Each structure stands twice: as structure tokens, then as C-alpha cells.
Amino acid sequence: MVTLSAFADEISSDLNEQLDVLESTGIRHLEFRGVWHKNVIDLTDEELEQVRSVLRARGFKISAIGSPIGKIRITDDFGHHLNQLNRAIDVAQYFGTKYIRIFSFFIPQGHSAKDYRNEVLWRLQEFVHRAQTAGVVLLHENEKGIYGDITERCVDIFSSCPSPHFRAAFDPANFVQCGVRPYTDAFAALEAQIEYVHIKDALLESKRVVPPGEGDGELRDVLSALFAKGYDGFLSIEPHLAQAKPFSGFSGPELFRVAADALKDMLAELHQTWR
Fold first, then answer.
1. Which range among 24-33, 102-111, 218-227, 246-255 shows the weakest confidence by mean pLDDT?
2. How do residues 91-114 score in pLDDT, each as one tens digit?
3. Secondary structure percentages of the chain, helix, strand, coil, to 5
4. What residues have CB less than 8 Å from 56, skipping those under 6 apart?
5. Is the pLDDT of residue 158 over 50?
6. 177, 208 in Cβ contact below 8 A?
């Protein structure tokens, strides 16, 4: 049985509205990226305490910390970013989740990704070392424009940083927006690394994000293959149906429900139960 989660800040910046909508859809987990117009790693200790108190009172849990770690230019200062990773680790431990979503650095426009390979891998290895020490798992998301945005470079990343503390958050829509067919071109190569799945779909021609199952993300094929192998992890809804920004997306309550219902319909077609 899989567990549904969601980027609740796509619903609203208000915590109670986030939880009200999730509750109405039967979803009890959040991939915690932001609240009150602030990113999770920018929240004060007092704000984190307030969030945890509300979540506990209402019976919600955190599936992962949706951090922005690695979502900087590869030429940007790394020392400050390591401090941000330490903060993300502290937040994950505070909320009792082992997962932290990360990225593999934006490549300067007009430059070749291979020219920055050594720097990317060195930085990721430092991330992984810190994750191993802290006992958390970093989930690399294949975001467009970063080093690990296509199949070959994702394989390179995981081959170069082998660790049970470094795994893949497989995002079909992001692959589509890079011209990659997620199941046809990426799944087999990354299957052994997939530990978490983002539910988002997109069209190859226009790159526009659409509800799950309505695009070229081959979601049914991806999920069918995962279920055949016994996948029982998280499916995290990240709709991006109204707005897609560099560090977040927005759908609003109604479009979020459209995405959640589409996923549930797909799971029913695949005879897969969820909680």
C-alpha cells in the first residue's frame, strides 16, 4: 500500500487551509516546503514549533522536507549552502522524517554541464557525507536546468555517490520538460535508485504542466512498474497547475483537488490501495 503526500504550500500559504484541503482529500502527509510565504529552512524555531504542534493536534505527518538545497548556481558560494543543509537536517530530525529533497545545482546558461561535473560531484559527495553522519536520506529531484536533469547525468550522480543515504525522487514532469520520456527513457536506468515519487505530469510539445495522467509523463507505466516491484513508499502530489516558480509552485485548493482526484482514479485503475 502506497502513502499519499503533497506539497501543501501549493494549496495555500496558510497552514490551517493547507490541512483543511488535505483532510478533505484523505491525505495525511505533507512534503513540507513552505508556509506563511516562507521556505521551510527559513522558518524560526518558534515557527517550526507552532507547525509541529498543529500537525500533531490534527493528526498529520511529514513525509519529507522539500528543501531548496542544491537549487543554486554551481558557481554560487558553497559554504553558506552547507549551513543551509545543516538547517534542513535539523528540521527533518525535528519533524521525525528521514527524507530531505535536494537538487544538483543549476548550470550557467550557455555552458556545458560536463564542464562542471567535478564540482557538482564534489559538492554532492559532501552532502552525502553529512547525510550519512546525521542518519538522513537525501532525495535527488531531477529538476530541469540542473546537472542531474536528464537520465545520463542522473545515472552519473548515483554511480559517483553510491550510498543508501542518497536516493532518487523521481519526477516524471521534470523529465518531460527536458525532452525525456520518463518510463521509456529513464525508468529502467534509475529504477534501483527510486525511493520516492513526485506526481506531476507535463506535455512534451509545450512543456505545460497538466493533471496527472493527461500528459506525456507515462505515469501509469511508471507506477505500474513500481507496483510490480512492490513499491510501497510515498507518492507526493506536486501539481503546479496554476503557477510554476523557480522555488515553488501553486495550484490553489480546487486545482489541487483536481490533481489529487486524478491520482486516486489512476490508482483505482491500477488496483492499488493507498492511505
1. 246-255
2. 999 999 999 999 999 999 999 999
3. 45, 20, 35
4. none
5. yes
6. no
How many residues are given for the chain? 275
Higher pLDDT, 244 or 202: 202
207: amino acid identity, one letter: K
Cell of 199: 506526481
247 Rama sector, left if φ>0, alpha if ψ -120 to 50, beta otherwise: alpha
The yes-or-no verdict on residue 253 having pLDDT over 60 is yes
Which amino acid is residue 145, in one-letter code? G
Q: Which amino acid is at 161?
A: C
What single letter denotes the amino acid at residue 125?
Q
Residue 247: the pLDDT is 47
147 alpha-carbon distance from chain centroid: 16
Beta bridge partners of residue 5, listed in sequence order: 236
Prediction pTM value? 0.95
Name which of 6, 1, 21 is nearest 63 in CA terms.
6
| Residue 266 contacts residue 212 (beta carbons within 8 Å) | yes
Map out the domains of the chain with their CATH numbers.
3-269 (3.20.20.150)
Separation of alpha carbons 127 and 165, rounded Å:
10
Helix or strand holding residue 139 (H, E): strand 137-141
